[in-house]
Amino acid sequence: MASFPRTGEIAAQVKAVLERLGVCQDRLAGPNAAYSPLTGELVAHWGARSGAAPDLAEAPGADPLEAAIGRAHAAFLQWRSVPAPRRGELVRLLGEELRAAKADLAALVTLEAGKITSEGAGEVQEMIDICDFATGLSRQLHGLTIATERPDHRMMETWHPMGVVGVISAFNFPVAVWSWNAALALVCGNAVVWKPSEKTPLTALAVDAIFARAAARFGGVPEGLSTLLLGGREAGEALVDDPRVSVVSATGSTAMGRAVAPRIARRFGRAILELGGNNAAIVCPSADLDLTLRAVAFAAMGTAGQRCTSLRRLFVHDSIHDALVPRLQQAYGSVQVGDPREAGTLVGPLIDEGAYTAMQAALDSARAAGGVVTGGERLGAEDALDAYYVRPALVEMPFQADCVAAETFAPILYVIRYSSLDEAIGLQNAVPQGLASSIFTTDLREAERFLSATGSDCGIANVNIGPSGAEIGGAFGGEKETGGGREAGSDSWKAYMRRATNTINYGSTLPLAQGVTFDVG
To answer: Where is the active site (predicted)?
Structure first.
């Protein structure tokens, strides 16, 4: 039986968790309010830039944002000369501190972002995993040795740190996205400046305190190597516009990406964009429907549909529609929505009223286009007037209407029939976004077609698993309006470094490439 938390019970829990995580009380003072989506209540205060430690107060009249970036740049100038394996030791210690703080940080993710307990713990585990990955990477930042046409010459490439890496993160993964960027950036010899979402400042303060403990154990970390900028739009704009910030990793909406990308390009900075995702799955006639049902349920309803990789469109073959969709409707009607701290809960709250309003507007548009909506109603309002719990919505659509092609950050799954694989792939790709995709099939030819150049146009393409829940070992990101950036595993580290091609002449003659002769005697 679902239950909902009552207003007034969350603030004390938040305070206790912050104390255990080592967040100083003087960093929780200021004019800005932090709210919990569990009840909508105010749970703490924070200052406009309370991420700066008290002993780093700015000189009177100084711009604190500019000064923070200046400290980060000065830290980079020192850190870039530290051997990469030694830099990896700092990240290893960060992983140890995260392991020690996992339970409390996960609880704070639940309290501030609304994730169910297992997903909160999973997010922190992802931070630990990327620290492990980056620690090993610190001994593998190698380039190529390249064959040269000139005798007694050698060609190679080397990789060097870029500078200051700015990280702009969103509420839905309030700590993991920072770690994807920071672990790699630090190992690669960069400094990091983090501007988290205004909706999740407390988890950012907690991570900042955890990093400080790792830095203290490491010893000799330059001041400003990891800097937290709490604030609104002006803090993000400082990272976007400052030429000392060599790389900006920005996670958010496509609209945000359209705004920041030209500004970064104008100063010839490097952007890693992780933007919208309108993810789809194709269910083929041969699919294992039991497996498909479980995968679709998690991908579409997990995190209350607030992952960038959440499943939003489901294309079901005509021949199996009646075998699958009624089972989905039953799952949607019975899934436990409520207090994310309770063991049986699978769907917690939306982040705020704005998310609820956007969801209802999308459902109204779907109905106007002929869609049949199951679910979508608000739940638990009598217990917490300012919290927004909803029944996930399953919407059977007669065609892929405009409302389907637009991403709504909420638990809405549009179901559309198809008759051929070509049709399904065409529908999947016929949206502006290109993040994640899946196909459910036991036919090898269908699976390979989906993964081929004529199949999915997304950055992530899966077979017999949903589009969400990526592991850190692979590069994460998408194409088209998703932004083209890549973070986390594979060779994503190269985005945080600059490449130099080197040619060494170890002989006593000077042969020129391409047979050019230029003899001055």
So the answer is: 274
